[in-house]
Design goal:
The protein has about 300 residues and is α/β, with parallel strands linked by helices. It contains 12 helices and 14 strands. The protein has 2 domains: about 160 residues, Periplasmic binding protein-like II (D-Maltodextrin-Binding Protein, domain 2); about 100 residues, 3-Layer(aba) Sandwich (D-Maltodextrin-Binding Protein, domain 2), CATH 3.40.190.10. Strands 10-9-11-8-12 form a 5-stranded mixed β-sheet, with helices on both faces. Strands 4-1-5 form a 3-stranded parallel β-sheet. Strands 2-3 form a two-stranded antiparallel sheet. Helix 5 links the parallel strand 9 and strand 10.
């Protein structure tokens, strides 16, 4: 499943940052003492992992030269255990993917959805988390299924894949906005009943804009039969994220995936999801099709996705 984001300011707290060159430089940025283990990982600069990100709080932001947010925190912990210094470089979403595919950076993070097409041009780690289908809802009504959305005014951001999903809902009216602030404004004004956005964006808005009186609800994903009948409904299903690396970075991908899996087992991943207001039961348990999508594609036939489920 592919999500497409335009480069936009998502919340007032998301700062507009200057675009940095994706090429980067070594020299003074290279650690003086690089361990043999770190050097063996094959990063562009030994001991440094160059990561392309876009400003997309609370998933990724750069503050004082450091990457922060959910994806930022996960990568920082992984890098520490691999003895790597994190060097963030700010770009837009298209630049993130291009930087990896042309090997101008070592990795990109921040809600990158795994897809069969993308994996042909790069490597995906095991999922650091799964992104559930989240809805921003104004008022006290509960929406659970696609059928509950029929005939409603529904909002999302221009270019997001939820545009296609909303257009497929019978009698629903699409409201598309340049950024998430427009969705939230119209939710607060009652012009939209439900908004489709990344879940942590909604959760952050609840805290930053309590006057809107919105809440986060999670959709029960459409069935396989519903998706077969209406393929655009596939975007109402959860998708697996991944950290995305160049095709050549096989050692680095395996090392990062190993650390991601360990963070599930230790409880650290659940701790970080909760730090940003997410529900580990929603973010850290894979849907049934996660394994089948990747087995025999970029994972062995016996691959089991990481999960907090026992």
């Amino acid at each position: 499943m592919i999500r497409i984001r335009p480069l936009a300011s998502v919340l007032s707290a998301t700062l507009l940052l200057l675009t940095a060159s994706a090429c980067g430089s070594g020299g003074d940025d290279e650690p003086e003492n690089v361990s043999a283990e770190a050097a063996a990982l094959g990063t562009l600069t030994p001991g440094v992992i160059k990561v392309a990100v876009q400003p997309y709080a609370p998933y990724t932001s750069v503050q004082d030269g450091k990457i922060v947010g959910l994806d930022g925190d996960i990568l920082t912990r992984v890098a520490e255990r691999l003895d790597l210094k994190v060097e963030p470089q700010v770009t837009d979403f298209a630049g993130m993917l291009a930087g990896v595919q042309s090997r101008r950076v070592d990795i990109t993070v921040g809600g990158v959805a795994w897809s069969e097409d993308r994996q042909k041009q790069g490597l995906f780690t095991d999922p650091p988390y799964y992104s559930p289908p989240a809805m921003a809802v104004a008022g006290d009504k509960t929406y659970k299924t696609v059928d509950d959305l029929k005939g409603l005014d529904l909002g999302t951001v221009e270019g997001y894949v939820w545009v296609k999903s909303i257009q497929a809902v019978p009698d629903a009216k699409l409201h598309a906005y340049p950024d998430a602030n427009g969705v939230f404004d119209d939710l607060g004004a009652g012009r939209v009943k439900v908004g489709f956005l990344d879940p942590l964006i909604i959760i952050a808005a609840q805290k930053e804009r309590p006057d809107l009186k919105i809440e986060t609800q999670y959709m029960t994903p459409p069935t396989a039969e519903q998706v077969k009948a209406q393929p655009a409904y596939a975007y109402f299903q959860p998708y697996q994220t991944g950290f995305y690396l160049p095709k050549q970075a096989t050692k680095l991908e395996k090392a990062i995936s190993k650390q991601i899996d360990a963070m599930y087992a230790s409880g650290e991943m659940a701790e970080l999801v909760k730090k940003y207001g997410g529900d580990p039961e929603q973010f850290l348990k894979p849907a049934a099709d996660v394994a089948t999508a990747r087995r025999g594609v970029d994972r062995p036939q016996d691959w089991t996705p990481p999960s907090i489920a026992k």
